[in-house]
Design a protein that fits this description.
Helices cover 40% and strands 24% of the residues. It is of the alpha/beta class.
């Protein structure tokens, strides 16, 4: 009987964190490609005192789909924490569709969202649920967009801005890679080319106005264009100062970034050469999503979602969604958003999350400007 959760990627920093947080309350299989790291993680997770239960290790790469299928015969939900790139996600999704296993991952960039949307019909036929973006960067923003749509149902414009810190090495690689590629925003229902950092949004994340740069690599616009009320969507992100300088037009460093030069050095600078934040850094960090919905006649609703450290929110949101998929029984297959599965749990079901509606426009500190060079 398929009733178990498999977390793929416990040999990565974020995957191991998710598995450790699941160990006390959600028995699961911990899988990955690196034998020593998967086995070591399983031993460490089960060795602690208290309610932690041993994690069953399974080691497999992505080249033998018959072997992967055999290892999913008792798995109802696969949570992919390894990577959302096509080389990792596509083989796992293929096998999930073949074996009737629900698929969940952390990826929220535009290309990944588009790839999963394109497989909606396959998933419907297979009766398999596909859920991307079970992470702070996507799930928290999805929760804000969904709530604003409820508060202001006639809204057609949406702006989202994200502030976070403490990226893992994998997240730093993905961010730096995104910055040197063109992206898209949504204007009146149409995809519009946009460059990263081409505009700056000054908004209040809770401590006064801060600058967030246009982030057209993010995937929120694609799903809300197809699935929600919004026809104009822009997403922004507060970037580390080193990346803001690189995005300035006309700078030599910016030209080097667009050519893909020096990316590894920038990644190491963002993470200080570590796989991820320390436990102490996670304990004191907070992350925030700011959102604004606007109607054609000028009515506005604004809100902030404040969460624990982004990695902690990611872990808890991913497990919340996985548990909901496991407990819901039969569900129609297809592409789903995190909010479709977890609903209000993305706000109310995670410890340390605070929802704040901004009653007065003056509180938002809102200003949009075009980014220019020195």
């Amino acid at each position: 009987m398929k009733s178990r959760l498999l977390i793929y990627g416990v040999d990565t920093w974020q995957g191991a964190l998710i598995s450790r947080r699941a160990a006390a309350s959600l028995p699961h299989i911990g899988a990955g490609r690196e034998i020593a790291r998967v086995a070591g993680h399983a031993n460490e997770t089960g060795a602690g005192e208290g309610e932690n239960r041993p994690v069953e290790p399974r080691i497999f790469g992505l080249g033998d789909r018959t072997r992967i299928a055999s290892l999913l015969d008792d798995v109802s939900v696969l949570l992919n924490c390894a990577s959302s790139d096509a080389g990792t996600a596509a083989p796992l999704i293929d096998v999930c569709l073949e074996t009737g296993t629900h698929y969940l991952d952390l990826g929220g960039d535009r290309a990944h969202i588009a790839a999963l949307l394109a497989r909606h019909d396959e998933a419907v036929k297979a009766g398999v649920v596909l859920v991307p973006g079970a992470s702070f960067d996507f799930a928290a923003a999805n929760a804000v967009a969904a709530r604003l749509a409820t508060i202001l149902p006639t809204a057609r414009g949406l702006m989202l801005a994200v502030k976070r810190s403490g990226r893992s090495a994998a997240e730093a690689r993905a961010l730096v890679a995104a910055l040197h590629l063109p992206g898209e925003t949504i204007r009146n229902g149409q995809l519009t080319p946009a460059e990263p950092g081409a505009r700056v949004l000054n908004c209040d994340f809770g401590q006064g106005a801060e600058a967030a740069q246009l982030a057209p690599w993010r995937g929120e616009g694609l799903v809300w264009r197809r699935r929600g009320p919004y026809s104009t969507i822009e997403t922004y992100e507060v970037l580390p100062p080193v990346l803001v300088r690189l995005l300035k037009r006309g700078s030599l460093a910016g030209a080097m970034l667009r050519r893909g030069w020096g990316l590894k050095r920038i990644e190491r600078r963002l993470t200080r050469g570590r796989e991820g934040p320390t436990d102490a850094e996670l304990a004191r960090s907070r992350a925030t999503v700011w959102g604004e919905a606007r109607t054609p006649d000028g009515k506005v609703a604004r809100a902030r979602l404040e969460t624990p450290a982004a990695a902690i929110y990611t872990a808890d949101a991913a497990l919340l969604i996985a548990r909901a998929l496991m407990e819901s029984g039969a569900r129609e297959g297809g592409f789903y958003l995190p909010s479709d599965i977890a609903g209000a749990g993305l706000v109310e079901g995670i410890e340390g999350v605070v929802w704040r509606e901004i009653a007065e426009a003056a509180e938002a500190g809102l200003d949009v400007s075009v980014m220019v060079g020195d």
